[in-house]
Design brief:
D-Maltodextrin-Binding Protein, domain 2, rod-shaped, 44% helix, 295 residues, 7-stranded mixed beta sheet, alpha/beta, single chain, two-stranded antiparallel ribbon
């Protein structure tokens, strides 16, 4: 049983006339007869009683079958429309990961808002997670898009491009002598302790603190890594150590914290847009295109 046979049956049931049905379908009358015969053979029943001059009438079986055939045709039309919308990226589901610092200054929300306005039919799920886990989830196919911090290498399944560069700022306790100094040089940090989140090494923050130590002529001393940047800031505000954070941390306005640039040494971190290298999802491709247009 084919959709074209059902469509032929529906039109003939509406017209009850072979010539008019053939005209509507753009077929010869013989084509209508052939399609109808195929459908009746599949069902094992007559659907029409044929009269004179191409006039027909539905049989009892035909009358019972008509609403079911119409339902099938409507569902097929809906399925086709749905498939076409999905192929254009207008509907579907998107799993987006982001590092916390991409949310602090509104970068993540601005990208998601722009995409949602362009594709309101796509269901979006947001996941805050650190860079290493995002890369694992993207490579495994459980995450579609990642907003993460640049690192030295990436899984072969993942493709990345730079979104923006953030200056790295030194976080100090607001009342400390260092925070009150008119300028902050690497040499002034000798003897200080530093604290990083547990993903700091993979995200490049450990290397940058070592570069800071090299510029200041000292080897940095580190406390035990902590869960995230909020814990880093809490430790800094308590006077336990110094931290290094992306500039969007200014948006947090966390009490007891001073964020300062380091004089004579520029340290930065790049926010990257990541996705699967072999990506076929129209929704993901549309998100990437909008993000590229924005950056």
């Amino acid at each position: 049983m084919e959709l074209r046979e059902l469509r032929c049956f529906e039109v003939l049931a509406e017209e009850l006339h072979f010539a008019r049905a053939a005209e509507r379908l753009g077929l010869a009358q013989s084509g209508v007869s052939r399609l109808l015969a195929g459908l009746e053979t599949d069902l094992g029943a007559k659907l029409f009683n044929r009269g004179k001059r191409s006039q027909v009438a539905l049989t009892t079986t035909g009358a019972l079958f008509l609403p079911e055939a119409q339902a099938i045709l409507r569902q097929a039309a809906r399925a086709e429309a749905l498939g076409r919308r999905a192929a254009r990226g207008e509907i579907g589901r998107l799993e987006i990961g982001f590092v916390a610092s991409a949310a602090w200054d509104g970068t993540a929300s601005a990208l998601v808002r722009r995409y949602h306005e362009a594709a309101p039919g796509v269901e979006i799920h947001l996941h805050e997670m650190e860079t290493p886990r995002q890369l694992q989830e993207i490579a495994a196919g459980r995450l579609d898009i990642g907003l993460l911090r640049a690192r030295a290498d990436y899984p072969p399944e993942v493709s990345v491009r730079a979104l923006k560069h953030d200056t790295l700022l030194l976080a100090l306790a607001a009342g400390s002598a260092l925070a009150k100094a008119p300028k902050l040089t690497p040499e002034m940090l000798k003897g200080e302790k530093f604290i990083l989140p547990h993903f700091g090494e993979e995200a490049g923050f450990l290397a940058r603190l070592r570069a800071l130590g090299q510029a200041g002529g000292f080897t940095p001393e580190f406390l035990t890594p902590v869960r995230d940047f909020i814990t880093v800031l809490t430790a800094v505000a308590a006077g336990l150590a110094l931290g290094l954070l992306p500039e969007p941390a200014k948006s947090l306005g966390m009490p007891g914290i001073a964020l300062r640039e380091i004089d004579g040494l520029r340290l930065d971190s790049t926010l990257m847009l990541a996705s699967r290298r072999a990506e076929h999802s129209p929704a993901v491709r549309q998100f990437l295109a909008l993000a590229r247009a924005k950056s």
